Amino acid sequence: MKIPSKHIENAVDQIASLPGIGRKTALRLVLNLLNRSQEEVHDFSEAFLTMKSNVKKCISCGNISDLEKCSICQDDKRDQTIICIVEDIRDVIAIEETQSYKGIYHVLNGIISPMDGIGPSDLNIQHLLERIPNSGVKEIIFALSATMEGDTTNFFLYKKLKEFDLEFSSLSRGVSIGSELQYADEVTLSRSIINRQPFEY
Amino acid sequence: MKIPSKHIENAVDQIASLPGIGRKTALRLVLNLLNRSQEEVHDFSEAFLTMKSNVKKCISCGNISDLEKCSICQDDKRDQTIICIVEDIRDVIAIEETQSYKGIYHVLNGIISPMDGIGPSDLNIQHLLERIPNSGVKEIIFALSATMEGDTTNFFLYKKLKEFDLEFSSLSRGVSIGSELQYADEVTLSRSIINRQPFEY
Predict the structure, then answer these.
(1) B63-82 tens-digit pLDDT
(2) Which of A48, A124, B34, B36 could lock B40 by a disulfide, CB 3.0 to 4.6 Å apart?
(3) In this structure, are residues B177 and B197 in contact, taking their beta carbons and an 8 Å threshold?
(4) Which CATH number applies to A57-170: 3.40.1190.20, 2.30.110.10, 2.60.120.10, 3.40.1360.10?
């Protein structure tokens, strides 16, 4: 795709560097920006610089925050004795949306994945081990993806954490609510039979 | 979706203001940017400002250009007697990719669409009427979308241009190459029978 302006070409390259965006889509987005006023384009550009300069990682849990400590860690109403371990801040947002969890989090910022060259030292694990002693934490919830990488990471963390006096749990797995049995994959269906729950009525 | 940082929220809002990008996708893209270095984020932001400040519209055809006149209008090897009228610069790029057209263009920058409040005066039409007299142009190709809006625009332009001594043509319509007959829509199939071509062998 030959674009008749090197400035537009450069903007397209930048947008297309984002994951999941191809050059045709990028061109459509860039032309939308080009039709905006100078001020709007300025606001657009400024948003990313301001974000990069100002967003911090919470010194306690690794969640994103505008302050030293994130709003969840600072909240007195949250149960500081339960830590839910997640891969990414998007998982924090997803769990918060459910309004079903009142404990705190620890964001690993990734998952152990030898295929991608990501080892334990690349993740926010050391700080997890440091924050647990004398913190009053009683339970760890593993909320990583149900993949080989997630299981590997869970096991690695469990080995490191078992010396502390903690309970361990993980998210329940089973057939999605609202979905039909026949479309569930075998492993999920098998797991949902083995881990069947008392009938609620 | 509650995002625990107003700076990230702002960046997400900006990305989600682009057409076809929802807030979940926007968050994924913004977090990708957040994980880049300060310098990379700076380059990302700068690309849009530089583009907005430097990209011009060709004074002759309305195509985007880094100079006063676009590279196509400046090219002596192009046939300056044929003008292909298109809606958008993306159409110029698409036609250029085919390497089948050696004439020049006129970019309307939109299409007459009363539903969206776009009338002839919002488009690059006046300049088209001004560039034709004494230019040596002999043929006009209408290459707008095959929609009601496209047809309306073609008809409007034809009425304005018929006083000049010009030939008019439009893109041929028919069954796509490589696609099966049974999947072509009725109107296209009907048009491709009426406009059947001499068999080439």
Answers:
(1) 989 889 999 999 999 999 99
(2) B36
(3) no
(4) 3.40.1360.10
